[in-house]
Design brief:
The chain has 13 helices and 14 strands. With 429 residues, it is of the alpha/beta class.
C-alpha cells in the first residue's frame, strides 16, 4: 500500500494549496454524467492475488461495489463487477464476503471468471491486481507475483474466444525484463487494449505543478521511501510522468545504476546528483519537514539512489530514503536553468482516495477500449526498476539498457483532483 506522509491535510488545508476550477475536459470527469443503467455498464472481472482489507484489490476493486469512498456513499464507478478469481485466501480474506453481499461470483479459475463459467469470453474488461500475498522473492529482492501466469490465462481465453477486451494491470508489468517484454509483446501481438501503472501520476501535487510540455529537461531528482521493489516503482512512475512531457517525447534510456549508502553522498559531492534539486524536493514535504537546521544527509543514513541516463541526455535520480521520509516529491530543471518542484501527496488512511483517481483513469478505457495513458510508460518504468535492482545486486555496476529504447509520446495531462474526503482510520470500513 502506498501511503502518504504521516498526518493529514484536511479540506481547509487543501484550499491553501489547490484551486478547484472544474476541468470539464479532464478524464477525471468523463463519466460523471447521469444516464448509465446497470444493464449497460461494462461487465468487469477482477483477477487478483489477495483481496483483504487495505490490499490493492480492496482499494481498487472494492470501489466497484462500495463506491469511490469505500463506504457505500456518493459516486460509484460506471462499471459492474460480475466475477473474480482470487489466487490466495488468507484468514482475513474479504472477497467472499463482498461477493455474497454484492452478487458477484468468485470462480476457481481465471478462465471461468472471464467466461462466467461458460465457453466464451463474457466480460467487457479485466482488472489484474497482483499486489500482496505470500510469494517468493527473486535474487534482486523483487516479490515474484504471478503476473505472467495470470495474464497468460487471460490471453488464452481471448484466443479461444477470438475477441479481446481492455485489461488494466496494477503497478509494474512484471519483475524481470524477460517477462516484462513478453507481457507487453502479447498485448501488442493480440491488439489487447492494455494500461498499467501506479497511483502516483494521478494523485494530488502540492503545490500544483507539472513539467512544461515540449520544453527540454536537463535533470529530474525524485525522493521516495520504502522497499526498493514496491515503492521504488512508485518513485519511477512519478519521474516518468514528468519526463515524458519533455521536448521530443520519450526516446528511451541508455543506462541505469543503483548506488547505496556512502556511495550516494559521494555521487552528490561529485555532482552526479544535483544537490540543489534534492533539497528542493525535500523542502516540499509539508507534513513531516526536516527539523530546523538539518539536511537530508543528517537523517537518511543508508539511502539508495537510482541514476537513470536517458538517450537524449536527460538524467533522472531517484533518492530512496531509509529514514525520515514518508512520502514522494520531485524537482526538475529545464535546459535554460529554471526549475520547479512539488510533493506528490497521498491520503494516509481510508478511503485512500488517490486510488480512486487511478480508477477514474481506468474507467474510460473500460468503456472505450482506448487507454487513458500509454502503457509504454509502465513498460519503461518496469524495465528501469529491474535494471536498478540488477545494478544493486552487482554493487552499483552500470547496467547498459539498449532494450529500453522505448519511444512514445503521451497526450495525457494531469489535473488536480478535488479535495479528498475526511481521512478515516486504516482499520475503518
Amino acid at each position: 500500500m502506498v501511503e502518504a506522509a504521516r498526518g493529514e491535510l484536511n479540506r481547509r488545508d487543501f484550499g491553501r494549496y489547490f484551486s478547484f476550477a472544474p476541468f470539464a475536459s479532464s478524464w477525471f470527469f468523463l463519466l460523471e454524467s447521469p444516464g448509465f443503467s446497470d444493464e449497460k455498464l461494462p461487465k468487469v472481472a477482477v483477477i487478483t492475488t489477495v483481496w483483504r482489507h487495505n490490499s490493492h484489490a480492496d482499494v481498487l476493486a472494492s470501489r466497484l461495489v462500495q463506491g469511490y469512498t469505500l463506504n457505500g456513499q456518493g459516486e460509484f464507478p460506471k462499471l459492474k463487477l460480475v466475477s473474480a478469481y482470487v489466487d490466495q485466501f488468507p484468514e482475513n480474506d474479504m472477497s467472499r464476503r463482498l461477493a455474497k453481499e454484492h452478487g458477484f461470483t468468485i470462480y476457481d479459475s481465471v478462465a471461468d471468471a472471464l467466461t462466467l463459467g461458460g465457453d466464451k469470453l463474457a466480460v467487457d474488461g479485466v482488472l489484474l491486481i497482483c499486489e500482496h500475498g505470500d510469494y517468493p522473492k527473486s535474487e534482486t529482492g523483487s516479490i515474484q507475483y504471478p503476473k505472467r501466469r495470470l495474464f497468460g490465462e487471460i490471453v488464452n481465453v481471448f484466443k479461444r474466444s477470438n475477441r479481446v477486451v481492455p485489461v488494466f494491470s496494477d503497478k509494474h508489468l512484471e519483475d524481470d525484463w524477460t517477462d516484462i517484454a513478453w507481457f507487453y509483446g502479447e498485448a501488442k501481438r493480440l491488439k489487447i487494449p492494455l494500461m498499467a501503472g501506479s497511483s502516483l501520476p494521478t494523485t494530488w501535487r502540492i503545490p500544483e505543478a507539472d513539467a512544461e510540455r515540449d520544453q527540454p529537461l536537463k535533470e529530474i531528482v525524485a525522493v521516495g521511501y520504502g522497499p526498493l521493489d514496491a515503492y521504488g516503482f512508485h518513485s519511477l512512475e512519478m519521474v516518468q510522468c514528468l519526463a515524458e512531457r519533455r521536448k521530443g517525447g520519450e526516446t528511451g534510456v541508455k543506462s541505469v545504476k543503483c548506488l547505496t549508502g556512502d556511495a550516494v553522498w559521494r555521487a552528490a559531492e561529485q555532482k552526479q546528483l544535483d544537490r540543489s534539486l534534492l533539497d528542493a524536493a525535500v523542502s516540499r514535504f509539508r507534513e513531516k519537514p526536516l527539523p530546523a537546521g538539518s539536511k537530508i544527509n543528517d537523517i537518511a543514513k543508508n539511502p539508495s539512489l537510482f541514476v537513470i541516463d536517458y538517450n537524449d541526455g536527460l538524467r533522472a535520480s531517484v533518492f530512496m530514503a531509509d529514514q525520515f521520509v514518508h512520502g514522494f516529491a520531485a524537482a526538475w530543471q529545464y535546459a535554460d536553468g529554471h526549475s520547479d518542484s512539488t510533493c506528490f501527496w497521498l491520503q494516509d488512511g481510508r478511503p485512500y482516495m488517490h486510488f480512486a483517481y487511478l480508477l477514474k483513469g481506468i474507467e474510460p478505457m473500460m468503456h472505450s477500449s482506448r487507454p487513458t495513458w500509454p502503457v509504454e510508460r509502465t513498460l519503461l518504468t518496469s524495465g528501469l526498476l529491474d535494471a536498478a535492482l540488477q545494478s544493486r545486486l552487482r554493487d552499483g555496476a552500470v547496467i547498459e539498457t539498449p532494450y529500453l529504447n522505448v519511444a512514445y509520446h503521451s497526450d495525457w495531462a494531469w489535473h488536480s483532483p478535488p479535495a479528498p474526503p475526511v481521512t478515516r482510520s486504516a482499520n475503518a470500513q
